[in-house]
Automatic annotation (TrEMBL):
One of its GO terms (biological process) is fatty acid biosynthetic process. Residues 10-421 form the Ketosynthase family 3 (KS3) domain. Keywords: Transferase. It comes from Bosea spartocytisi. This is Beta-ketoacyl-ACP synthase. Pathway: Lipid metabolism; fatty acid biosynthesis. GO terms for cellular component: cytosol. It holds the Pfam family Ketoacyl-synt_C. Belongs to the thiolase-like superfamily. Beta-ketoacyl-ACP synthases family. InterPro entries: Beta-ketoacyl_synthase, Ketoacyl_synth_AS, Ketoacyl_synth_C, Ketoacyl_synth_N, PKS_Beta-ketoAc_synthase_dom, Thiolase-like. The keyword ATP-binding does not apply. PROSITE patterns: KS3_1, KS3_2. Signal peptide: none annotated. One of its GO terms (molecular function) is 3-oxoacyl-[acyl-carrier-protein] synthase activity.
């Protein structure tokens, strides 16, 4: 049998399954139809009261579930739906015995105010630390504590799909979903596993989260109309809109996939990651870590900037991030940036935070498969300091074989993926 290796002699990492859930709907077909139609999933939040909040909108996923859930419960349900779609498409491990490892990006959630208040009310006498510890030991609150344990969601997903080894939970802020994919790629390249289930999920829109991001001046306050708030690269952008969702990818050693007759949907050709110690929430003004992450991803893939057909932007719609990303891309791609398409899925689905890198990787592979680039919507007031081809407002037909997908997160996490068409499509 012919052994396929990349230019560095490593196993080629193929994608054989994709799954996605966002505020636009469940599944690849529904999301792709809405994305290419320029539809927005941003709406007024009805899950909890928003009176007194500066931001009252979000890309919540409410249409699938009737009952209220905590952030870990919703994150798990979204991850399950995305993973079911990806695993089913791959035909690998559909009987609950997935023959590979799980790498899962999950939000770093903790007990929310309602749970904390309920625990405090259960204490007799003074509400102090010792009283909270005693309450936490009781059956009801012990179960609540276990619900919010960081690795709990991945444990449940591992049980559901029968993944092998210890499930990996990770959280690298807004780059988490891309990091999960990177970890799967590296495990396959090392020969640790022949397959990996990589998931990014986030169902953490609640009042406390909105307030925390508002205190950082990170969220848009342009609440009316909701669908017009996320406007990446526009002059009047004022912050991101929180979104919920999940993206799942089944990765395989290319030879393993071929041997079982699987359909190859694409290749994860390169990964780049750089840390930025400049500030907890702000990027380095010179954009150096983002520049190096993109350059590292291209070098890892054995490609050059000229090989890239499209950039799936991080594109959060915050004043600083969009400016930094535009500058960084210009440093990597030079004069090509005047005509190289770059668009932001977040203009339609909001910023799905921990899930974003995985959700946007799924959308990138759909872009390759369908020969159409989703637009950046709400682009009516161009920023003269950002001269990019943002694929404004309307999807564009284009032959796309190589994509860079950018994920730049709080805490200095910068992860870039190079995603390419399957070799047989050449």
């Amino acid at each position: 049998m012919t052994t396929h290796r990349d230019a560095k002699g490593r196993p080629i990492v193929a994608v054989t399954g994709l799954g996605v859930v966002t505020s636009l709907g469940q599944g690849k077909e529904t999301n792709w139809k809405a994305l290419t139609a320029g539809q927005s999933g941003i709406h007024r939040i009805e899950r909890f009261p928003t009176e007194g909040l500066r931001t009252t909108i979000g890309g919540t996923v409410d249409f699938l579930f009737d009952e209220p859930f905590t952030a870990p419960q919703l994150s798990e349900k979204l991850a399950t739906l995305a993973a079911e779609e990806a695993v089913t498409q791959s035909g690998l491990g559909t009987s609950g015995d997935f023959p590979g490892e799980l790498f899962m990006a999950v939000p770093p959630v903790e007990m929310e105010w309602p749970q904390k208040q309920e625990m405090a009310q259960a204490i007799e006498g003074d509400v102090d630390y010792d009283g909270l510890l005693r309450a936490a030991e009781t059956g009801k609150f012990r179960a609540m504590h276990e619900l919010f344990v960081f690795g709990g969601v991945a444990d449940h997903i591992a049980d559901r799909f029968g993944t092998k080894g210890s499930p990996i939970s990770l959280s690298t802020a807004c780059s988490s979903g891309a990091t999960a994919i990177q970890m799967g790629v590296e495990a396959i390249r090392r020969g640790d596993t022949e397959a990996a289930l990589c998931i990014g999920t986030d169902g953490s829109i609640h009042a406390e989260a909105l307030i925390r991001f508002s205190l950082l001046s990170a969220l848009s306050t342009q609440n009316d109309p909701p669908e017009g708030a996320a406007k990446p690269f526009s002059k009047n952008r004022d912050g991101f809109v929180m979104g919920e969702g999940a993206g799942a990818l089944v990765l395989e050693d290319y030879d393993h996939a071929l041997a079982r007759g699987a359909t190859i949907l694409g290749i994860v050709a390169g990964c780049g990651e750089r840390g930025d110690g400049f500030h907890r929430t702000r990027s380095s003004p010179d954009g150096k870590p983002a520049i190096l992450a993109m350059q590292d991803a291209l070098a890892d893939a054995g490609l050059t900037p000229d090989d890239v057909d499209y950039i799936n932007a991080h594109g959060t719609s915050t004043p600083e991030n969009d400016k930094m990303e535009a500058m960084s891309c210009a440093a990597v791609f030079g004069e090509r940036m005047a005509s190289l398409p770059i668009s932001s899925n977040k203009s339609m689905i909001g910023h799905t935070l921990t899930a974003a890198g995985a959700v946007e990787a799924v959308i990138s592979f759909l872009t390759i498969a369908n020969g159409k680039i989703p637009p950046t919507i709400n682009y009516a007031n161009p920023d003269p300091a950002i001269t990019l081809d943002v694929v404004p407002n309307t999807a564009r037909d284009a032959k796309v074989r190589t994509i860079i997908s950018n994920s730049f997160g709080f805490g200095g996490q910068n992860t870039c993926l190079v995603l390419t068409a399957p070799p047989e499509a050449a």
